[in-house]
Amino acid sequence: MSTSIWPPIAADALKKEEDESAARELSWLLDSLQETLASLKSGLEECYALLAPIEPGSTLVMSSPRSESIKGHITRVGTRIVKGSLHLRLKTHPPTHPHLSPDCPLILPSLSQLRTLLNESLDCVDITRWTGDRHSAPFISSQLHLLHTIILEALSLLKGPSLLEPIPISPSNSPSPTPGVQKTAIPQTPHSAPDTSWFESPPDPATFVPALPSTLSLALTLSDTSLVLTIRTLEPTSLQPNLGSRFAFAIGAQRRLEHDEMDDVFMYRDEEVRVKEKIRVEGSADPSLLSLGAKLGALERTVESARVGLGVVVGLGTGVEAEGSNN
Description:
Layout: H1 11-49, E1 58-61, E2 70-77, E3 80-88, E4 99-100, E5 106-107, H2 109-131, H3 137-159, E6 170-171, E7 181-182, H4 197-200, E8 208-209, E9 216-223, E10 226-236, H5 243-251, E11 266-268, E12 271-282, H6 287-313
Antiparallel strand pairs: 1-2, 2-3, 3-5, 4-8, 6-7, 9-10, 10-12, 11-12
Organism: Hyphodiscus hymeniophilus
Region (Disordered): 169-204
InterPro entries: RAVE2/Rogdi (IPR028241)
């Protein structure tokens, strides 16, 4: 099916009419995008408010299912854990009952970074609305591209680190506290990398009462808008198993606890260690984080739709980039 103009007009006149029509459509779209940007700012402000340090916060249950390994609860206020009490009954560690020191809240770096990204996205919207040329398609497109990238990074933080097995240390030829040992590359997915924060930036032992021993690691991370607690019991690589343990392993009378890090070596607090036991517990649903994830997902789709629409109008088909295009 085709369309035609009747009565026919000259090719030059037709091209002029098409250009004028495209210019009017682009002008209308750029004006309507200002309303979209105002709506995006409102949604981003709601997301930012969900991470505000407002009492009493969210109290989350942290308990291992079908076992007594981990029982307890934590309270999140904004980007910090301000209260927490855990009962640990691990197979490779004496029972212990650490609780969070009231004078030393535990800061969650992923949530702090998320607040920073939300601030950046709000700044991006303000610059787009008030600083640049609102009638410039390349400028608006580049700003939408930047905003989309920031929101995608924020969603990646909420999704959490990949559960792929990291390969943190292997015998190689790079400097480390022990000659001949280095940290090697960690396999990554397009949206998230394996969690390395537990050994690269562990919490201060004084954060807990009693202080966490060097043989125990506690890490809180984000995963699918939920807080996940991972407990690891550690042993130095310099510690060799005694003859009785070797014999028990050899005849099958004793087995190592199997997990995804059992054969890896990590540099934890300036010491090479292995993970003897690893338990991962997902906390109860956090209403604020669930709402934050839903709102951010909706905002991401809105920005993507705006980029696609602008790309179509400036003549890039279904593409979403208008950089380099003329008005």
